[in-house]
Amino acid sequence: MFGLRGRRRMTPIVDIDDGATQPALGPVVVWLSLAAMAIIVAGIVGHVLKVREATYGGALEQARVSTDLLSENAGRLLDTADFLVDSARARVAGRTWDAIAADRSLWQGLKADADRFEHVDAVWLNDLAGNLRLVTHAFPAPVSNVLDRDFYRHFADGRDGPYISQPLVGRVTEEATFLLTRRLNGPDGKLRGIASVTLDPDFFADFLETFELPYGADMTLVREQGDVLVSDPPGGGAGAAAVAAAQARDVIGHGVLSGPISDERVIGWVKRLDEWPLFAVVRFDRAVIDDAWVDAVTPYAVIGSLALLSLLGLAGFAHAGERARRRG
C-alpha cells in the first residue's frame, strides 16, 4: 500500500502509421474518370443517333407535306384546264364539224378563255378521223392529225373520262407539251371527236421551283402509266426523274395512293392526285440530309471529345501518382 495511492496508471503509446491508414485515392480517381468517360461516350452516341433519327424523320414528314401541297395545287391547275375542255365541249355540242371549223366567233371565244390561264397553251378540237378542225393558235386551223397519238387511241378504244397524254412535241407548235383531253360524243353516245387543251411544261416547272425545298430535293409529276410529265430540277435531273417515276410505279403497283419511297440514295414521298391519274413525287438526297445532321452534332462531339481528353489526362495523372506512391 505504501506509495500506491500516488502512482498513475500508464497508457501504452501506439505508433500510428499514417501511410497504412490513408486510403489510396489514385485507383478511385482512375475508375471514376473511366466511368465518366463511358457516360460521355454513351451520351454523345445517343445524341448523334437521336439527331440523325430526328433529321431523317423531319425530312420524310416534309416530303409528305410537300407532296400534299404539290398534288393539291397541281390538281387545281388541271381543274381549270378541264373547265376549258368542258366549256369547249358545251359550245360545239350538236354542231357539224364544218360549222365548227368555219366559226370565227367560236374561235375567238375559246381563245379568250385560253388566254386567261398562263399554264394553258391552246384549246384543240379534232374530229373522229383525228383531223384538227379548230385550235386557238390560229384561224383557220392548220392541217394536222392525231390518229396515232395515245390520247386518240385511248378514246377510240371506247374509254371515257379525262385523259392526260404522254409528253410530246406538238406537230403544229413544234414545242414540248402534254394534253388534257376528253371525248366528244354524238347524240347516239358514240365518239365523234376529241376536245383537249395543251399545257405548258415550263409553267409547271416554274411552279415546282416555288417550293424551294431543302436537302437537294427533286420533284416530279408522273402519269399513272409511269411517264414523267415535268420535273424539277430539269435537264440534269432527267435521270433522277426517271428513277422517281420507277419508284412511283412501284408504289402504284402495290395499290397504295400515298406512301414513302426510299433507296440507298434518296428518301421521299409519293401521292396520287385526288381527281387525276397523276402522282406527285418529292425526294430528298440522303447525302445532303447526312451533312445536315452531322453539322448539327459536330459542336457537341467536339465538346464531348475535349471532356474525354480532360478525363483521360486526369486518369493518367492519378495512375502515375498511384504508381509513385507504391514505389515509395
TrEMBL record:
The keyword Transmembrane helix applies. It comes from the Bacteria. Keywords: Membrane, Transmembrane, Transmembrane helix. The chain crosses the membrane at residues 28-49, 300-320. This is Cache domain-containing protein. It comes from Caenispirillum bisanense.
